[in-house]
């Protein structure tokens, strides 16, 4: 969706805000004045009754705005391609300033990560106020922030309805969080036709979007509490507890699922290549092979390509957590495959040459992946486990050193090449969530 289309959609809600809420002020004011005059003459508190009527009308207007926001959020998410976009100029002053209590201003250094001359242009990162982080954004993410700002406008216009606005804001965000999960993790984006496939880049940007929504919740809660003031009573505190704890926990779970999905892409591809690498059929030809195993090189390429893609969109800590789980799964899949294929071979000579070939392949894997410093320790622990598994399933001959000596020899020889390229052909920069067997060619990177 283009920025122009997004602006048109958001303007619908802004118009509804002024058309439905503003008249309530005039009505409320005039009826309260009339009610006060009635009280002075008859001693009957008519103003209270009139105010209650107007308050009920305002609640109906807030509900209409909420329904319009939910419809817009659904449409934004259904049309989203999950590709990165620049942050529009002045987005912070126009939208994010509303996420701060009245009297608070955005600090000069918090609204941009770029130089002053870049202020008139779109920027790569959205920087949230109050040191809540910086994020890559997609159009739907920006749109949801604008819709959140509408609820804060309603709360400021009618402080008596701050609790109602908070309840509906929480509801809208919960619905959006659930819809995003269905679209990206359950495959509805593909089945609906909005995307042909979901790539690692799409999932990483989805993670950024959910993380951004979660990170802005403390700002929203602080502003709503400030607007409601002491008149908010226990109701506003209950709603804000739901916003800050339950909804935030739901979003944290969603982020965890996205991280697991990103790891699953790599594990599925490892399974695909490992089935060809550790096959009994190829074991009989292991002694005739010259040069690195092509399937091992494909594993290396997948790892280095995924690392490159994720580092463009996620924090180093997040990438490290993803690869920690991936390498543990690599070790268990390696063991299961080797056990299965070993039972198909009964020739001792073939098993010996196969063992030698596998050890050489694992050494090659270490050499190729060592230059990626932030996953090196996890990778070497994984390879060490694979070497131990190889010793157990394909024991060395009497007098032959254990396979663990390979790592020591590589340490003595140095860290290997300084480039992460593991073959003359560059691997694709992204990977599809479709298993390799169904889609052997990775989908092109999206968003960057």
From TrEMBL:
Residues 134-269 form the Vacuolar protein sorting-associated protein 54 C-terminal domain. GO terms for cellular component: cytosol; GARP complex. Residues 102-122, 392-448 are annotated as: Disordered. GO terms for biological process: Golgi to vacuole transport; protein transport; retrograde transport, endosome to Golgi. The keyword Repressor does not apply. Residues 109-120 have a biased composition (Polar residues). Belongs to the VPS54 family. This is Vacuolar protein sorting-associated protein 54. It comes from Perkinsus olseni (Perkinsus atlanticus). The lineage of its organism: Eukaryota, Sar, Alveolata, Perkinsozoa, Perkinsea. The gene is VPS54.
